[in-house]
Amino acid sequence: MNSPSRVFPGRLRLRKPSRASLRHTLSLLGLGALSALALPPVHALPVLLITFPLLGAVLNRSKNSKSAAWAGALFGFGLYAASLYWLVNAVMIRAEDFWWFVPFPSLGCALILAPMTAAPAALSMLAKSGPRRLILFAASWTVFDMGRVFLFSGFPWNPLGSALAVPGRIGDVLIQPAAWMGVDGMTLCLVLLALLAGTALQDYWHRARKTGTVCFSPTQQRITLGLSAAMILGWSAAGYSRLHMVTPTGEAGPITVLVQGNVPENEKVAHQSAREVFERYLTLTAQGVERAHTLQTSAPNRAIVFLWPETAYPGYPLLQDSPRARQIIMGWAEGAQAGLIGALRHDENGRYRNSVLALAPDGQVAAIYDKARLVPFGEYQPSYIPLQIVPQGGLAAGPGPHTWHLADIPSVGALICYEVIFSGSVVDEKDRPRWLANVTNDAWFGNSAGPRQHLSSVRLRAVEEGLPIARAANTGISIAYDGFGHELARLGWDKTDSLVVPLPAPLPAPLFSLYGRVIALALCCLVMISAFSPVRKRV
After folding, report:
1. Do 369 and 342 form a contact (C-beta atoms < 8 A)?
2. pTM for this structure?
3. How far apart, in whole angstroms, are the C-alpha atoms of residue 446 and residue 186?
4. Which of 279, 277, 281, 280 is CA-nearest to residue 268?
5. What is the per-residue pLDDT across 398-435, written as a single tens digit (0 to 9) for each?
């Protein structure tokens, strides 16, 4: 009897993968997944000294760009699938409607993002095997990581530099270089350090046991470890110095009241208990503003501003169309100079927008900010996607960062939820505000790593821009940072309360706030050049 390949000569032959190739695939997926432990909220940074050098060893053994790209893709898929596991929580809230979509959020995002790690792995093959290939890979990794802002509406979630945003004083020191190079520059330095120092340490281990292959000569190994130690010490010294040498300038910020209603997302989606939710926010606002007045006695010129989280207003008609509701809100917040309310609104074309409305003491709408960066497949769906995932194609996007100059209040820039993850794109460059107001709703993602990863972005934006940030979240974590990224106060997850935080003055504009991501891109170019620069031989 003829075999299928003889009867149908054009048919592809399916080969059963060998055990070695299967082990290779699973190992790279596992290394990527293990690397996710370095990200918030675990911050297990030492794992990068194991995972990245092992990936580098695979790249150094690769014979061509195709095999290197496959290795990078597997590593990236494991990294993003593990670090974005919590995305499935958003689907489970409406599992009765979107049960079929459950496998897609984390695995689908990982599949979309995997080419962003495959490409730098393939490009690394342009350099000679050894340290140069590792250096080129680190720079290429950072460039393609920066390029994630161009995926759909942008998805720059979890750059590796955010792993340095360790909670507490240690993290305060480690994240200060973000003021000069941004989180992308931190990613470059971290990947370089992990690859070179980790590889040097693994070479030492292999030599001691006379097993395996090595990348560095003994001299290169000593130089690499010495430079790595010097980099860590210099980084720490620079961060510590900035914390003590840079001082705030100008008037202090307002006394902010961050209202955390702690409304379960399934109630919001079903519009349950809208009246009870509204009354809860009114009561919490009144209590918070009353506490703020006690602080105002020692600083009578400081304004009181209260923040409601993203889409916190539960009523219908919409807040923009309800003067009575706005007057009630400001009546309960008597003595406050402004209220920043997260609410849906519709524009002149009938499209819905995710917005923040600034209310004056008389209840008038003093300013409106519309969310510009929409969540892919949550608030925004590309027109070329055939499946209707987002109802009615999603929300309409706003024009971008804008500074409000409200009466009796230091100038402020509003940010809604997801927008805060976009490094270098959170303030109006031509009109720098004195503080930032961030409203968010992380209830979609449950008490998981997601809200903590989001929080690290808030902290890093404070350092990059040198501006204090007040953040009001629906179910937590509501928090305030100063311009150093130092935590001033927080209201934890699943708490129903209001948090009163007087904001300090902003810091002088950091280097990054002036030149943005061009700095990190320039550093990447310099590192790439070094990977190809000729080595002078001793005579």
Report:
1. no
2. 0.92
3. 29
4. 277
5. 999 999 999 999 999 999 999 999 999 999 999 999 99
Question: Cβ(215)–Cβ(134) under 8 Å?
Answer: yes
Give residue-wise pLDDT tens across range 476-498: 999 999 999 999 999 999 999 99
The catalytic residues are 310, 371, 417
What are φ and ψ of residue 436, in 5° steps? -120, 140
- The length of the chain in residues reads 539
**Burial of 521 by CB count in 10 Å (0-12 exposed, 13-18 middle, 19+ buried)?**
middle
At a CB cut-off of 8 Å and minimum separation 6, what does 27 contact? Answer: 54
3-state secondary structure of 217: coil
Measured between alpha carbons, how far is 20 from 26 in angstroms, rounded to an integer?
10
Q: For 79-102, give the secondary structure using H, E and C.
A: HHHHHCHHHHHHHHCCHHHHHHHC
Q: What is the DSSP string of 49-89?
A: HHHHHHHHHHHHH-SSHHHHHHHHHHHHHHHHHHHTGGGHH
**φ, ψ for residue 34 (rounded to 5)?**
-65, -35
- Give the Å distances, CA to CA, from 530 to 24, 188, 370: 31, 14, 44
